[in-house]
Amino acid sequence: MIRPEGFRGAAFGNAADGDARTDPVARVRFAAALEVSPDWAYVHQVHGAAVVTAAEPGLRGDADAIITAIDDLPLCVATADCVPVIIEGERMTAAVHAGWRGIVAGVVEATMAAIRDSGDVPLRAAVGPAIGPCCYEVGDEVLDGLAPFAAETTWGSTSVDLPAAVVARLGSLPMWQADRCTFDSEELNSYRRDRTKLRQVAVTWLPTG
Predict the structure, then answer these.
(1) What's the confidence (pLDDT) of residue 208?
(2) CA 110 to CA 51: how far, in whole Å?
(3) What does the pLDDT look like over 107-141, one tens digit per residue?
(4) Angle at CA 19, nearest 5°, toward 17 and 25?
(5) Could you give all domains of the chain from N- to C-terminal order, each with its CATH number?
(6) Most buried of 39, 110, 129, 152 (most Cβ within 10 A)?
(7) CA distance 177 to 182
(8) Is 118 left (phi over 0), alpha (psi -120 to 50) or beta?
């Protein structure tokens, strides 16, 4: 588990933590380590830009970002190469699943706009482990959507830098970055590496007080 410094309620899981979104035992264990409720709000991730607001735990619909102003209500997204992002506001927090399609569609900007539209202000962001440009080989469709972030894999093929694309969309927001590649680390789940169905979670919450 990775706990970004300077955040009220934020954590990124790893492979050893289990798939806490779908495995109730892993979720209870993960929640206990954070001293939060195991009853989380989450979304059916569809690689788009939809943002939902959660007032209670459970599945909150099809979306790739979820926000709340409710104290002690953990929010969760799950990733295994896509970029997990946590955005804290003054009175709200958000969890974002940012794959390349979602990034191009504007999920990061839509989440910050949803926070502002609710009368809050984004204060900081944490960008969790994701596949790096070292290992994210892509074709023309991805490259066309993210051309400014074109890079090269360690084996010489075309890639894009997904974390950098997310950071650019966060603008001047103060941020923390995990700077860890899921493909390159056996400690993290990576769909690109081994086609795993397992995911690591990103969890955020507003502690009481």
Answers:
(1) 86
(2) 7
(3) 999 999 999 999 999 999 999 999 999 999 999 99
(4) 80
(5) 10-204 (3.60.140.10)
(6) 129
(7) 14
(8) alpha
Q: What share of the chain is helix, strand, coil (3-state, %, to 5)?
A: 25, 30, 45
Instruction: Flag whether the pTM goes above 0.85.
Output: yes
Phi (first) and psi of residue 5, to 5 degrees: -75, 145
- Spell out the residues 6+ positions from residue 11 whose beta carbon is closer than 8 angstroms to its own: 1, 2, 3, 4, 30, 34, 202, 203, 204
Q: Which residues pair with 67 in a beta bridge?
A: 53, 94
Return the closest-CA partner of residue 165 out of 99, 115, 110, 116.
99
Beta-strand runs (E) in 28-82: 41-44, 51-53, 58-62, 65-68, 75-79
